[in-house]
From TrEMBL:
<dbReference type="InterPro" id="IPR024618">
    <property type="entry name" value="DUF3857"/>
</dbReference>
<feature type="signal peptide">
    <location>
        <begin position="1"/>
        <end position="26"/>
    </location>
</feature>
<dbReference type="InterPro" id="IPR038765">
    <property type="entry name" value="Papain-like_cys_pep_sf"/>
</dbReference>
<dbReference type="Pfam" id="PF12969">
    <property type="entry name" value="DUF3857"/>
</dbReference>
<protein>
    <recommendedName>
        <fullName>DUF3857 domain-containing protein</fullName>
    </recommendedName>
</protein>
<feature type="domain" description="DUF3857">
    <location>
        <begin position="58"/>
        <end position="217"/>
    </location>
</feature>
<keyword id="KW-0732">Signal</keyword>
């Protein structure tokens, strides 16, 4: 009831607000009412001004006025300003207004929280964040925030995305970057209505971007990433300096040379460690076996702990430090593993990457600091082996969804070099399942299920094995298995830590109502565990490309032993559906009392034209229909 009232108040208040405040109705070519449609938030105005004083210092000034239309926009009423030893917050102010424009509150210093931003996996960081909230309960309401930050880390210039979430509209926003007259600003524009406007004062060149009257943008099902759909400007320096370390971002090679300089002299190991590693790998029959032995040693000896302080955000700790302490962050552990491999005669490369499941690839056409993680690249005779050095359980050579199928920057003595990490196809990401079922005359029965998951499809099970206790694993299985009503009698998992790792899940289930009795007939759906259920909404006109980000192959073989005394009355025909997105086939055979069901579904990864979307919807509808097919048995008359 409270939620309903709040929505009612918002609608009534908006009408009242628009009637009583005609001076705010017009926003260029669109009205505020138009900008409010399908929006939770309207950015009334936003100004970002970044001034470069030198290659080692700059100032960021930010000012915004935001109208919150409903409870789903409340998060925009809280301001977060991160800082550390290389960035100092010089001022923060804020004001809250009601729907009539009356000032309700002005931020006081005591209202601004200043907390540590140290993560739970950190020993020490110098990161902190100032938090100010002006959240209110009567809609719509408006907040204003303004702050200024002085920076001495000039690796990062603004990444401007004025429309940074769905259900958000923008009345007016601008970005201004001021660089010294003798300097150069590098930038990349995407979806901006107007290119940069260039002006100049006595000391600086001024680049200005503006947008206005941006209505809400929402992703379509299976659509491109949000950043592809909205205006965006990336800016970056040519020359920069961090904590006394000077570098260039003009090319990827230049940026790699800067990182290489940070890493110099940090790969020395104690002589006794070198001797231990050489003894460990003395009988290895191949380079890959050496890598696996060293990687296993590293995983057993170390743990991931983040330590970020000043230049330590980019410079790894010495290998000898990690060797003695047994911990390090992604930079330190990758550097340590590189040093250990070097000790046994295996060359490898420190590699910067933008990690994270679902994280978009970097803009390869814009050299800049777009990375959040470090991994290790080990060139082999036929391919490259990638090592995730922060994990104590990951398989050697596996990128997976965290770092796979994207660009990494190899740090070589000659500079940076962009390469692509492993992409996983359908035959890598498999779910191969076999089920044996014995039914009784009530339609219940017992089932033995063996499912082998590989590649990206095994990652969920791998996390369950790694992070959950047995009692929690059983609970997770109950929550995530799709099957007729069941009880788990037994279960176990086995793993293979290969380049394409696998998890095999074995289940013994007691099934209730696996088949339905109606008079003398018995209705059986042989697809027990792999029914497709979701079809995305069909739109009259698709606007964006169809993007499928994962290829996979699912194969089910189900053998069901029927109770005696039944014969087949209806047997579905074999079905096959093919589209640009994938292939599906299913068939059922009956031999005496044995029913054998085969289902195969392979989906492709790729980017497809908008007009193919109807084919995707049709394909999924066909799969749903096929997955629901039943075999009908009739009881023999005695």
């Amino acid at each position: 009831m409270l939620r309903t009232n709040r929505k009612y108040n918002w609608l009534g208040a908006l009408v009242c607000w628009l009637l009583l405040a005609p001076q705010v109705l017009t926003a260029g070519n669109a009205t505020l009412a138009e900008l409010s449609k399908e929006a939770n938030v309207v950015i009334r105005s936003e100004e970002t001004v970044f001034t470069v004083n030198s290659i080692s210092s700059g100032t960021l000034r930010f000012k915004t006025r935001i109208t919150i239309l409903n409870e789903n926009g409340d998060h925009r009423a809280t301001l977060y300003v991160p800082y550390n030893k290389m960035s100092k917050v010089s001022s923060i102010s804020g004001t809250l207004y009601d729907r009539f424009g009356n000032r309700l509150k002005k931020l006081k210093n005591s209202d601004i929280k200043d907390i540590s931003a140290i993560s739970s996996i950190s020993v020490y960081e110098d990161s902190r964040v100032k938090i100010a909230s002006l959240e209110y309960s009567v809609y719509p309401y408006t907040v204003e925030f303004e702050y200024e930050v002085a920076r001495s880390n000039m690796m990062f210039y603004p990444r401007w995305i004025p429309q940074d979430e769905e259900n958000l509209s923008v009345e007016k926003a601008s970005l201004q970057v001021q660089v010294p007259v003798a300097s150069k600003l590098r930038y990349l524009e995407s979806n901006v209505p107007e290119k940069a406007r260039l002006s100049q004062n006595a000391t600086h060149q001024i680049y200005t971007w503006e947008v206005s009257n941006l209505k809400p943008v929402n992703r379509e099902p299976y659509g491109p990433g949000f950043s592809e759909l909205v205006p965006m400007v990336l800016t970056a320096p040519g020359e920069f300096e961090v904590d006394g370390y000077r570098g260039s971002m003009e090319t990827w090679k230049d940026f790699g040379l800067w990182q290489s300089k940070l890493n110099e002299g940090r790969g020395q190991l104690p002589a006794e460690t070198v001797a231990k590693l050489q003894q460990l790998t003395a009988n290895a029959k191949s380079t890959e076996e050496k890598v696996r032995l060293v990687y296993d040693y590293m995983q057993g000896k170390t743990r991931y702990v983040s330590i970020q302080l000043g230049i330590g955000g980019w410079q790894p700790f010495e290998a000898s430090f990690v060797d003695s302490k047994g911990y390090g962050d992604c930079k330190a552990l990758s550097n340590y593993t590189q040093a250990m491999l070097q000790a046994v005669g295996v060359a490898s490369f420190y590699a910067l990457i933008n990690a994270g499941e679902g994280t978009p690839d970097i803009r390869t056409d814009f050299p800049s600091s777009q990375f959040n993680h470090v991994i290790l690249s080990v060139p082999m005779a036929q391919d490259t082996m990638w090592l995730e050095c922060t994990s104590q359980t990951e398989a050697a050579g596996y990128n997976g969804s965290f770092t796979g199928d994207r660009h990494a920057l190899l740090i070589t003595p000659e500079g940076g070099k962009l390469v692509k990490t492993t992409a996983y196809g359908a035959t890598d990401n498999q779910q191969i399942r076999s089920i044996q079922v014995k039914l009784d005359e009530t339609g219940s029965g017992t089932a033995t299920v063996r499912t082998r998951y590989t590649g990206i499809q095994q990652e969920t099970r791998d996390r369950v094995i790694t992070n959950r206790k047995p009692e929690d694993q059983r609970k997770w299985l109950y929550e995530n298995i799709t099957a007729p009503p069941f009880e788990i009698s037994k279960y176990n998992f086995t793993q293979q830590k290969e380049r394409v790792p696998s998890v095999t899940e074995n289940l013994e289930l007691s099934l209730r109502q696996c088949a339905t009795l109606s008079g003398k007939r018995l209705f059986l759906n042989p697809n027990l565990m792999s029914k497709w259920t979701h079809v995305p909404n069909q739109k009259e006109k698709r606007l964006t490309d169809v993007v499928r980000v994962m290829a996979y192959l699912d194969v089910d073989t189900v053998e069901i032993e029927m109770p005696a005394g039944y014969s087949v009355e209806y047997l579905p025909r074999a079905i096959q559906h093919t589209s640009v997105f994938g292939e599906y086939s299913a068939s059922v055979k009956v031999d005496g009392q044995r029913v054998t069901y085969m289902r195969r579904m392979q989906m492709h990864k790729g980017r497809f034209a908008p007009d193919t979307y109807a084919q995707l919807v049709e394909f999924y509808n066909n799969v749903i229909k096929a997955d629901a097919e039943q075999v009908v048995f009739v009881k023999n008359v005695q």
